[in-house]
Each structure stands twice: as structure tokens, then as C-alpha cells.
Amino acid sequence: MTLSVVVAGGGSAGHIEPALALADAVRRLRPDARITALGTERGLDTTLVPARGYALELIPPVPLPRKPSGDLLRLPLKVRGAVNRVREVLTAVDADVVVGFGGYVALPAYLGARGRVPIVVHEANARAGLANKVGARFAARVVAAVAGSGLDGAEVIGIPLRRAVTMLDRPALRARARATFRLPPQGPVLLVFGGSQGARTLNTAVAEALPGLLSRGIAVLHAHGKGGTPAGPPQLGYVPLPYIDDMHLAYAAADAVLGRAGAMTVAEVSAVGLPAVYVPLPHGNGEQALNAGPVVAAGGGVLVDDADLTGDRALAELLPILTDPRRLAAMGAAARASGHADADVRLAHVVLDVAGHGGGRAWTRPGPASPHTGGGGAR
Fold this sequence. Notes:
alpha/beta
């Protein structure tokens, strides 16, 4: 029997990439599996999903309130329309399981699948968002990137990542990667990035620290963001770029990272074994600092508050790491050990088990006597 998996990770790359990494892992285990992604026209779905070869079904976007409200219980018109569209897709593809990764696509996916198709919830952040808090209440299985997400009973497995990252052989690609970015073939390289739009704090600190880094023989590969400002003009040892498409090559070229602490950033940097100075965004609920907590506690990174990052502070943190090969190697090993490079495969097995294709006990569709259960019990 053909396995049909629906993934709901639309919107941002932080939601889409784990969903696609899971899809790839399911396909490796079950090459005949039918994978369908739910998304909207508002996010990166229409670009990222088809490029990876998966079917994309669009649903109306449902902006999420920051806090639970009566709107969720009353199902306003916009939510109702999205839920109905999800149910149409689930029927059309004869879905065996829905896997959600949070965000405004996941919420209607969970509500549309409730009581009809078993649900698996994956939480990437250190603190769960609203959609996953709702979905976890009637999911068959709940998994998380780190402990303490706020979802009761969540199994900690890490974040599913692309094989280009988890299987990266940095030493083997080092020469090619440095040639690609026109970096010096020898000597330490610092990789700096703060997301697609860049990060003003990081860019300012790099501009201040650049002379000190270059004077110590440390080259800098700087993704300053499409709206950000480079630390100066390109020069020997300094390569500024608005955005880096081939991040696996950037990781291979680098010896350490200066960046934000988003869930995907921490997961990827840890998986490839790079020491990092993490500068969490000073907004939101403080989850970025929590994302980096496990790798910092393991000795694979350092946390610096956004307000404290200056050029001098960057030099004080980075120079002792990048000029000491033993410390660099020890921190890299600690970072790798704290990561979860096999999260894609582990989640794929959870999905197969819930769908009844993994040799375990399959989820049972609720009968009339239990119309409000979704399998696996409430969480």
C-alpha cells in the first residue's frame, strides 16, 4: 500500500526546510511514498517546495494571534476556509499522516486533520508556538528539537536537516569551498551571517573588528544581508556577500561562526561541528538564547547579548578561539556532539510508525463514541 504523507511547514525557511528534510528521509526509506506539502502564496513555499521535487497544495493563509483567543474556538471565516481546503487535500491524496512544523500553515492543517488523519507535531524552537500548542493537544506523537519546549510528553530528536549539511565532509571540501569564495587557502576563516536580511548589530561589530581580525591572519566570509551593509570593500581576506546560497560550502570553508541563534542556525552549525559565538535576537520571548543553550552548555559555543556586541567584544570572544587550534578543535567536537544529525531519519521512523508503515501499532481512526480524539491521547 502506498504511503501518503502530508507535511505542513509553510511560510518561512525555518518551517519549510525541516519539512523537506523529513520528506527526503521518508523517500529514502519508502521510495514509493507520496509526499504532499501544504503552503501558501505568501511565503517561500512556491519557490522552495517545487525546487525539491515535491507536490505543493496551496491553502489560504491564516495569520496567527500572538496569544490564544476566542477566535480560535469560534473558527472565524478565514480559518474555516483554510481548514476546509486542507480537508479537500487530505481526501484527494488519501493521506495516511499529517506532519506539522508550526506556523500559519500548520494550524489549519492540524484542525483539518483532527479526528480524520493522525498528526505528528514537530517543534523546532525552544519555546513552542501557538499552532503547535494547539496541534499537540490531539497529536498521535509530539517531537521537539530541544527539551523544555512546553509541549508535554515531547520526544527530543533535534531538527531534520538537509543531507548536504548532515553528511558534510568539511576537510574534504575545504579547498574547493575556499576557492569558490576566493578565500585564502590557509589560515582560519570566520563565517558571519544573520539571516537573509542581515543583522545590523553583527554588521557593525564586524566593521569595527575587521582590522583586528585581518591583522591576526583571520579571513572573514561575511553574509551581510540583502538590506545590510558590508564591513568594507572586498579585499584580501574579506569577502562580503549579500546572501550565501550554498551554505554547506560556507560551512566547509569556515572554522568558526558569528551569527544569530535561530533554531535552524544552531542546528546546522552544531551538526557540521563549527564553534560559534551566538548573538540572539533581542526580540520575542527569548527563545533564541534558549535555542543555543544546549550547545553552549556543552562547550561548543558562546552566548553574547545583542546589546553587548561591539567590535572589541567580538575580538575578545573570537581571537582566543580562532588562534588556538586545540580550543578550536575541542569546541567543534563539543558542538557536533550536542547536535542531532540523524533527526531526519528519526522523525521519518516516527511518521512511518504513526501511519502504520513502520512495523509498530498504527493510529486508529476514532469512531462515533470518541469524536474528539486524534489518536495517541491528549497532550
